[in-house]
Amino acid sequence: MRLAELSARSGVSTATIKYYLREGLLPPGERITATQAAYDEGHLRRLRLLRAMVQVGRMPVATVREVLKAVDDDSLDHHDRLGAAVGALPHDAGRNGSAADPEPVAEAERVADRLLELMGWPPEVRGSARAMPAYRMLVAALAEVARFGYPWDADHLAPYGRLAQELAVTDLDFVERYGSPEEQVEAAVALTVLYEPVLLSLRRLADTAESYRRFAAPRTGEAGA
Amino acid sequence: MRLAELSARSGVSTATIKYYLREGLLPPGERITATQAAYDEGHLRRLRLLRAMVQVGRMPVATVREVLKAVDDDSLDHHDRLGAAVGALPHDAGRNGSAADPEPVAEAERVADRLLELMGWPPEVRGSARAMPAYRMLVAALAEVARFGYPWDADHLAPYGRLAQELAVTDLDFVERYGSPEEQVEAAVALTVLYEPVLLSLRRLADTAESYRRFAAPRTGEAGA
């Protein structure tokens, strides 16, 4: 397809597509004439991923480039690509903006390590996790909970770790529906970004429903149990 | 305690405490002299909650006021207070900033309603959920997933709904550790804000571990199974 059709089908303006091409975030199309190129379904998929990261994830272009480097790294095996791509996603700077003191951070690292151990992760996975932005995000979040005086020990947090693992099984089942390794890696990145607000809103709604189940006073007019 | 001690113990500057007092976000202390007031543990707790909402949740003061109105509403029973307080938390504007078209939003509402039905919520809970910011956040997030062409039907999302309910059981077990209804409502609001980044980072790390489990090529030098 030509640039105009790629723009129409992706919903991304031709000016933005040209910018992505110049920045190397979108691979060049197949050159047809001196001024025209042809694009394929892979370009469409890549644009969808770019929009998810830039528009929904509000990621700066430099970070997008880092994530795409992992997505496109043919020298890695499938797991390493998928893990590197999801692991390279930035933590949300808005939520963890405050610079934490070094002291609680060191303690938070011990808690994070113990938590991953309680989750039964093999040592090589724990080792590579420490290099990921998601691990820094976990340590910063734990230090924040500590700063506010709420419990943050690994034993207390273990149920959240267990549920995160069940979420991951659901996530990966979903990623595996996609055919090619390239599509799987792209889907893993896009769904991490797109499903986070779905998950957070469901948790808040479920909190209110659970609170209703536990605390709601029986309404008058209701038949007795 | 006096203002200086309240400031030292809460880590909030006296200028900020005076601002919260002027804005009515912090109830006045007990007047001792014309220029001095005494504050108690309740003031300390409230300051901790204010910091969680303002500093970590980055909520504007007008929204903080809305949430606190629910926290402090004695006319509601315990469930309604807790549900109203957590439900009044704003969705993260940064993640869902784009104005969605009305057409996908109407469809997203149908999907959200069906999802809550699949989660087995009683009709009265589903009815009151529709008035919450968390419900608008869910609808916006679903419309966003749809806009990007990823599956977003209620049947596909049902496992996330089930896991959100298990999270809610863990959340509420935790909230119930606190003694008084006031402390429980405050803990529910603070932990919703503080535990969200913990949960998201654990999910990303668990995604990479699950990807390792499924896709990692056996390393050379490993003993055969």
How would you summarize the topology of this molecule?
The structure is a homodimer of 225-residue chains.
Chain A lengths: L2 H8 L3 H9 L7 E2 L5 E2 L2 H16 L4 H11 L6 H10 L14 H17 L4 H7 L3 H15 L6 H22 L5 H35 L10
Antiparallel strand pairs in A: 1-2
Please, could you describe this protein's structure?
The structure is a homodimer of 225-residue chains. In chain A, 67% of the residues lie in helices and 2% in strands. With 225 residues, chain A is mainly alpha-helical. Chain A has a two-stranded antiparallel ribbon with strand order 1-2. In chain A, strand 1 and strand 2 form a beta hairpin. At the A-B interface, helix 3, helix 5, helix 7, helix 8 and helix 9 of A face helix 3, helix 5, helix 7, helix 8 and helix 9 of B.
Helix content of chain A: 55-70%
Task: State the total count of DSSP E strands of chain A.
Answer: 2
Radius of gyration of chain A: 22 Å
The biggest sheet of chain A, with number of strands, parallel, antiparallel or mixed sense and barrel status, is: 2 strands, antiparallel
Structural class of chain A: mainly alpha
| H/E element sequence of chain A | HHEEHHHHHHHH
Strand residue percentage of chain A: under 5%
Global mean pLDDT of chain A: 82
* Shape designation of chain A: elongated
Q: Which protein chains make the most extensive interface, counting residues with beta carbons within 8 Å of the other chain's beta carbons?
A: A-B, 90 and 90 residues
| Count of helix runs of chain A | 10
Quaternary state of this entry equals: homodimer
For the largest sheet of chain A, list the strands in their spatial order.
1-2
